[in-house]
Amino acid sequence: MNLDANNLNNIVSLIMKELDKNNNIDDTGQGCGGEEGKNGIFSSMDTAVSKAKEAQVTLFASKLELRERIIKAIREDVREAAAELAEIAVEETGMGRVDDKTLKHYVTVDKTPGVEDLRAFAYSGDNGLTVMELSPYGVIGSITPSTNPSETIVCNAIGMIAAGNSVVFAPHPGAKKTSLRAVEILNKAVARAGGPNNLVVTIFEPSIENTNKMVKNPDIKMVVATGGPGVVKSVMSSGKKAIGAGAGNPPVLVDETADIEKAAKDIVNGCSFDNNLPCITEKEVVAVDSITDYLIFEMQKNGAYLVQDSKTIKKLCEMVINDGSPNRAYVGKNASYILKDLGIDVGDEIKVIIVETDAGHPLAVLEMLMPVLPIVRVKDALEGIKVCKKLEDGLRHTAMIHSKNIDILTKYARDMETTILVKNGPSYSGIGVGGEGYTTFTIAGPTGEGLTSAKSFARNRRCALVGGLSIK
Ligand code: NAD
User: Fold this and answer.
1) 144 CB under 6 A from ligand 1?
2) Which of 19, 44, 136, 342 is at 20 to 30 A from 419, Cα to Cα?
3) For a pocket test of ligand 1, which of 226, 274, 395 has the largest count of ligand atoms closer than 8 A to its C-beta?
4) Class of domain 251-436
């Protein structure tokens, strides 16, 4: 064979392509094995935003009926993929429980409000008819967590599309695979319903750098952050309309009037749900002294393991707290896994580790995000309210109480100032699981939208028709 320079170049190029294929890099060079732009996933954040902008223009020009069809398809397809998404998330992040995560997807598709959430309001009189309507922002940038990765993406997508927006997701890098799969499923559902391409987009390589790029892009008209204090602070100082759904440290108060058997069961079930990852789950128990022993006894009957001796408590704390923060190695892990590292072998029937502490103990003060539940004794319910308020630390997120005393229930609800307050039930009743009301995975305490839904992702606009149309 006669090898001239051109031939050589061609051969080198063929070899490079073959190597790239083996390294899972395709022609677009995004390095993740996917096809550029297919199913809403791009290599560049700016491209993702500009494609989402085009899609939003098409959506806004279409009938509301299209949005309804898209949301129906999303509900159907995510329901179908719920277990798959749950499995990928547990495998990828090493956190949580597949069954609970599957349930979280079902709740998301069944109970996240759609277009019906956008209610109009009218003023009418001698001067005419004025209508207040909820109109889209345009392209929304949504930053999502590692703890509920695909649940948050699906829940946000339903609400944001219902309100007429497109959405660019900036997922947690540690939940990249799960998040990209969720975006892929959403895009297929939108296409199946006849919606525009790229209504829901993301990028192949999520990173803080790319997230910041998204926030700064002038075509992003609203930023929604679901995560810890760092990201909430960052979006609130972005100079854009921001929704911040931040950390919590939900206490549960149990007084002497409560149904103790039920309280014990609810607390174990709530605290262990998805291994304590949801921001709303019981993170510490504050119990009136006269019923604390019985509460602990009942919790033990329902899957709690009591760690009692001071040496083991010390070892547990050294394990799960690292430099004053929860040790990531134990975040979202099964109670049996944590106990095994403590030298205690138990079966999966043990869902929560309980330990008595004082109110200032790091296990009580920190948002641990694992099924290790401190129990703090107080002399009465009034002292309990003060302790719970201190532990919630002004986050205004979530709190629970088990009591039949109306005065205590009322005082607790008023004093705690939380976005969610659950009375006589497990924490998850506060997001519509076994409690009334719709579901969300973006609970915006810091910016005040509360449990977000389509109306939170829409602008309030007024159209005044002067001098007519009123038929009063
Ligand atoms: P995290 O704060 O580590 O990450 C959340 C998202 O923010 C990720 O996409 C991450 O990449 C991004 N991020 C983090 N710091 C950033 C910064 N400085 N600038 C830009 N982007 C940044 O949170 P996590 O560990 O994934 O999730 C757990 C936390 O989220 C807990 O504190 C939990 O309470 C909270 N959370 C709150 C809600 C709610 O609705 N209020 C829901 C879920 C989780």
Assistant:
1) yes
2) 136
3) 226
4) alpha beta
